[in-house]
Every structure is written in C-alpha cells, then in structure tokens.
Amino acid sequence: MDDDVLATVRRSLPKLSAAESRVAETILGDPTLVVDLAINDLAKLCRTSLSTVARFAQSLGYSGYRELRVAVARAVTLAQAQQARFGLDTTAIDREDGPAAIAAKLAAQEIDAIEKTAMALDEQALDRVAEALAAARHIDLFGQAASSLTAQDLQLKLARIGCSVSHSPDPHLAITTASLRCREDVAVAFSHGGETAETVRALEVARDAGALTVAVTSASDSPLAAVAEVVLLSQAQESPFRMAAMSSRIAQLALIDVLFVRIVQLRGEPVAVSLQRTHDVVPARRARP
C-alpha cells in the first residue's frame, strides 16, 4: 500500500463508478472531512450508501473505512506539519504568488516528495535492482522528457563506476537497442505516471528480449509497472499550477541516489578507485592550455 493515500485516491478516479467517484472527489477536495466524519456522515455528504464508501475503501487496498480514515488522518497531519515548517497555509502555487512564496511552496512540496519516497521504500525490491545492475553485462535506461533527465543522471553515475550503460531520448533508438538485450542485461524505465507510450514500449521490447526489466514510477498499477519485473515507487504530487515535472523529478532523483549508493556498496573497493580516477581526470584536463 502506498504511504501517500491521497495520491492513491487520485489515481483510482478513472476506474471508479459514479458513486465511488463522488467519494473520491470529496476526499480530495477536503481530506479533513474523512478525519472528522463517520462513515454514515460521509456517505450522506456524497449522496451514496455506506456500502459504497466501504467498497471504495476496499478498492484502494484498505480493510474498510476505518483503516482508510487512519491513513488519511496521517496524510493530513504530515501535510499540515510540512506547511507549518514553511509558514504556509497551503503548498498549492497560484498566479498571485511572488518569488518567496513560490520558493517556500516548492521547497515544501519537494521535501514532502523525498520524505514520502524514503518512507515508502521497498528495500527488497531496491536491493534486487542494485544487485542486478552491479552484475549486469549492459544497462539500458529509458525515459522521455523530464524522465529522460533522471535517466541521464543515473547514466552519468553508473558510467563513473565502469558500468556499461546507455540512454537515448530518441524512442526509435531506445527500442532498437532494447531488442538486442539478453538475460545478462537490465533495462530501467522512468515515468512518473507510468503511461508514456514510448517508454512502455521500450521496456516491453527489452523484457521480450530477455533483460530484467525495472520500472521507476509513482503509479504501481500503470502500464509501465505491468511490463516490469521489479517496480520502484517514487512518491510525488505535482501542483495543479505546473509547467513541468518538479516534485516528481526530485522524488525520482532521490530514489536513484539511494540505488546508486547500494550499487557502490555492492561493487566494493574497485568502485572507489573508479570514482577517484573519474574525479581526478576532469580537473587535470581543464588545466591544460
């Protein structure tokens, strides 16, 4: 179960009945209602039945409304603490905000994304991926747009410790290289929503070629997660007033930092030599006339 219950509720919307959608939209509109209202009161507010509210809670993976209520209360408390830390009433960015308000709200959102990603970390899954990457013959990294930036970051890190790794933002080239993989290879795909068609296709091709497939996404029930053998979940909620991926990118970067440290630990002393050598060579090259 995701620690971010509100993100889970938001992702569930396309699959819900009309009555269940009213429950979900009421919770998203004001999560404190769930904390304050008993199941019968929430059902009346949503113009639905007790059984519909209970069924909605169970569809999210909870035993019933009581467990959902506890999860929402925890999410509300964390959100309020995050806002209080920065002296904010809300972390939602609007058109009237000045630079100081934008900076505070983005900081709150991004810290929240990192904390939730860390708290929800699946240690077993992460270690499985780290071990596979440390031993891989070759590593392919897939991602489009903002997720391509995350893939590039991991590519640079892995290249510095001597891994054979590639990433291409060109979807045709990504699929071409994916088709040449085998059981000794690993393919890692990045997509916040897990629905980017080009990324899903590349991972699917790598899987069919025999590579171990890994999805880094915030949506455990997404098309990308469905074609991956291992899923690493990031936790992030983007502001409605968004121009590009922000919190989602930060959450992904935090997750791959943890992954990279585990790979370094697994590969041992030779990695330290590689890191030092790659660190030293750049300044020396720049010093030349």
What class, by secondary structure content?
alpha/beta
Residue share in helix: 55-70%
Strand order of the largest sheet: 2-1-3-4-5
Spans of at least 5 consecutive residues whose pLDDT stays below 50 are none
Give the percentage of residues in beta strands.
Answer: 5-15%
Q: How many helices?
A: 14
Element order: H for helix, E for strand: HHHHHHHHEHEHEHEHEHH
Q: Compute the separation of the termini in Å.
A: 57 Å
Rg on CA atoms, Å: 21 Å
How many beta strands in the DSSP annotation? Answer: 5
Describe the structure.
Strand 3, helix 11 (197-209) and strand 4 form a beta-alpha-beta unit. Strands 2-1-3-4-5 form a 5-stranded parallel sheet, sandwiched between helices. By secondary structure, the chain is an alpha/beta fold. It contains 14 helices and 5 strands. The mean pLDDT is 86. It is globular.
What's the short story on this structure?
With 289 residues, the protein is of the alpha/beta class. It has 14 helices and 5 strands.
List keywords for this structure.
single chain, globular, five-stranded parallel beta sheet, 289 residues, alpha/beta, 61% helix
Blueprint of the fold:
Layout: H1 5-12, H2 18-29, H3 32-36, H4 39-45, H5 50-59, H6 65-85, H7 99-119, H8 123-135, E1 139-143, H9 146-160, E2 165-167, H10 171-178, E3 186-190, H11 197-209, E4 212-217, H12 223-226, E5 230-233, H13 247-267, H14 269-286
Parallel strand pairs: 1-2, 1-3, 3-4, 4-5
Helix pairs in contact: 1-2, 2-5, 4-5, 6-7, 7-13, 8-13, 9-13, 10-11
